[in-house]
Amino acid sequence: TELDRIRNFSIVAHIDHGKSTLADRLIQLTGTVAQRDMKEQMLDAMDIERERGITIKANSVRIEYPAKDGHTYILNLIDTPGHVDFAYEVSRSMRAVEGSLLVVDASQGVEAQTLANVYQAIDADHEIVPVLNKIDLPAAEPDRVKEQIEDVIGIDASDAIPISAKSGMGIPDVLEAIVQRLPAPKGDRDAPLKAMLVDSWYDSYLGVVVLIRVMDGVIRKGDTIRMIKTKATYKLDKLAVLKPQMVDIAELGPGEIGVFTASIKQVRDTRVGDTITHERAQCATALPGFKPAQPVVFCGLFPVDSAEFDALRDAIEKLALNDASFSYEMETSAALGFGFRCGFLGLLHLEVVRDRLEREYDIDLITTAPSVVYHIHMRDGEMRELHNPADMPDLTLVNHIEEPRIKATIMVPDDYLGEVLKLCQDRRGIQLDLTYAGSRAMVVYDLPLNEVVFDFYDRLKSVTKGYASFDYQITGYREDVLVKMSILVNDEPVDALSLMVHRDRAEMRGRAMCEKLKELIPRHMFKIPIQAAIGGRVIARETIAALRKDVTAKCYGGDVTRKKKLLEKQKAGKKKMRQFGKVEIPQQAFINALKMD
Ligand code: GTP
């Protein structure tokens, strides 16, 4: 295909502003997918994505569009994830295209992720076409939102396209704008092959599938290619384009986007951002490449039933095949037995992985409290990364501890600003900026990541009735006075409940956790003390009173079926419990104990 008949683009939007719905409409209107095969949210392949309505893995679709100028254009849409955890994948896939549609919900306006994502598009030198979605809603204010786009983002919005992705209104204008307003790709067909490895995933039939964008040269089925960073050589088995299902193609030239398979064993053998060239005629320079995404949140995953450990290991290994940003290593806990310490890009990523393990592999899991990665500077000058508070070295050997900090951007209607400032202040935040765009405030805070990973996002949503939006990036590590707090249940330390806290907040957190655990742990036949301690010093204490009556006593004497039912119910409940010495702790206690409210 000639370069000037190709347009490559992505869609940037805040979550729920309608990115997937618009993508569906573009696919539908151009007849890329036959009407009867059209499912909602075509691009969100995984069930969980569909269920939660979030897009996780970047994906791509090739659309053929007969434009008003009489020519047929090839439009390649690379779908990008919308959630903050996956910001890194957004920035990567944007390097593969020349333009972006900026979708803003005309009833909501610009939100934090709109900003974060559009800045990435600007960084990637994209031409940007603003699109105002949901104008069918009575609350839509396209003019106000146009103004806001200009004020807050600083791009011209006078030609913003009003649409309703839901009804299909305005979609033909979007297609025309893609052709007229976005630039064609550049590239040299006669140069040696240079292609960018945009993404890769594991397909159970085909093995590893690699998504590429050709910069220069031509790639053909049967070619022997070389990946410059990993130095690996492969022979192409299959070359295809995504419509969005795979359709074989003989070759891909400059500006084109497609996939290949080449008997690659695992996703880890491919490096996103790597340069692909021909084994025989290699390109002179490689593309700049990307740093691999680093896990920032760690937690332990343990099977509720220890007999399921092998099944859990198999499931984790399978998941990791398809997700290079997920890391794991075996862990043993005195309380929970054998399990895995797993690393994630953020909390959403953690939840998605945990859900998949529980649902697709049917394993009941105990998830321990998420923790960030601390830098422990030892007296002897060594720096250790701490992924698990339980591994905290002896304090007399430690010189100081550093924790990761983030720059958080929050956009919120004026009325809730006070609540947001209070929340950030409570979480040890330092205000960096506060500006207004109409009746919405934009606050920027420097916050410790450990105060955010857990329930910050939930709290923010609840104190602002869902009106705030949030985005963050990690800025670096800073020293602070951090201590390890242990929790003792019935005088036994429960390692899975220990956590790192700021010294000034330890007492408050300790008290809150003991109170929570008092509610979460059922009464036993004996009294159970619950204590929070730093080193040997107890800083908070609660006691669960002993159970006086037999549980079945309240079933009037002879009703055997009722009694049986109650016992059955207890047995089912047991499955979700974990035994610590003589005490049983319900599995959700490990997470809920940490929620602050
Ligand atoms: P993520 O995949 O989570 O990033 O969200 P998204 O931006 O892809 O949003 P999605 O397309 O899933 O749309 C979010 C919600 O808005 C869905 O319930 C859609 O049905 C609805 N929606 C999308 N476009 C329109 C529109 O034009 N009008 C109205 N009224 N609703 C819309």
Describe the protein's architecture and organization.
With 597 residues, the chain is α+β, with helices and mostly antiparallel strands. The chain has 13 helices and 34 strands. The chain has an 8-stranded antiparallel β-sheet, with no helix packed on it. Strand 22 and strand 23 (383-386) form a beta hairpin. Helix 3 runs parallel beside helix 4 (112-123). It starts with 5 loop residues before the first strand and ends in a 5-residue tail after the last helix. Guanosine-5'-triphosphate (GTP) is lined by residues 13, 15-21, 53-55, 82, 133-134, 136-137, 164-166.
Task: Give a brief outline of the structure.
The protein is of the alpha+beta class and 597 residues long. Residues 4-186 form the Tr-type G domain.
In terms of topology, how is this protein built?
Layout lengths: L5 E8 L5 H11 L17 H6 L6 E8 L5 E8 L7 H8 L4 E7 L6 H12 L3 E7 L8 H12 L7 E2 L8 H11 L12 E10 L3 E10 L2 E2 L3 E4 L5 E3 L2 E5 L3 E3 L2 E2 L4 E5 L13 E4 L18 E7 L5 H13 L5 E7 L3 E8 L2 H14 L4 E3 L3 E2 L1 E5 L4 E4 L11 E16 L3 H10 L3 E8 L2 E9 L7 H8 L5 E12 L1 E8 L2 E2 L5 E4 H18 L7 E7 L2 E8 L15 H16 L1 E4 L2 E4 L2 H4 L5
Parallel strand pairs: 1-3, 1-4, 4-5, 5-6
Antiparallel strand pairs: 2-3, 7-8, 7-16, 8-15, 9-14, 10-11, 10-16, 12-13, 12-15, 17-19, 17-20, 17-21, 18-19, 22-23, 22-24, 24-26, 24-27, 25-26, 28-29, 28-30, 28-31, 31-32, 33-34
The chain binds guanosine-5'-triphosphate.
Guanosine-5'-triphosphate binds next to α1.
